[in-house]
Amino acid sequence: MKSLVLAEKPSVAREIARVLQCHNKQKGYIEGAQYVVTWALGHLVTLAEPEDYNSKYRQWKLEDLPMLPERMKLKVIRQTSHQFQVVRNLMKRPDIKELVIATDAGREGELVARWIMVLANWKKPFKRLWISSQTDGAIREGFAGLKAGSAYNNLYDAAVCRAEADWLIGLNVTRALSCKFNAQLTAGRVQTPTLAMIVDREEEIKKFVPVDYWTIRADFGDYFGDWRDQAGNSRIFLHDRAQEITSRVKGQKGTIKELKTESKSEPPPLAYDLTELQRDANKRLGFTAQKTLSVLQDLYERHKLVTYPRTDSRYITKDMVPTLPARLKAMAVGHYAEFVRPLLQKPPAPSKRFVDDSKVSDHHAIIPTEQPLRLAALSADEKNLYDLVARRFIAVLYPPFRYELTTLITVVNNELFYSRGKVVTDQGWRAVTGRTVEKEDADEALPEQVLSRQKKGDQKQVQGVKIKKSKTKPPPRYTEATLLTAMEHAGKFVEDEELRESLKQGGLGTPATRADIIEKLLRTLYIERSGKELVPTSKGIQLVKLVAPALKSPELTASWEQSLTNIARGEGSKSRFMADIRDNTRELVKSVSTDKTIFQVDNVTKTKCPVCGKYMLLFKGKRGKMLVCPDRTCGHRQPERQDDFAGFKSSKSTSRINQKLISQYSDKGSVGQNLGELLKEALAKEDPDQPRGR
Question: One of 156, 308, 336, 478 is an active-site residue; which one?
Answer without folding.
Answer: 308
